[in-house]
Amino acid sequence: MKLEIISMERVLLRDDVDMVVAPAWDGEVGILPNHAPMITMLQPGEVRIRKGGEEQYIFVSGGFLEVRDNRVVILSDIAERAEEIDIEEARRRAEEARKEMPKDLAKAEAALRRELMRMKVAEKRKRRTG
Question: What is the mean pLDDT of the chain?
Answer without folding.
Answer: 89
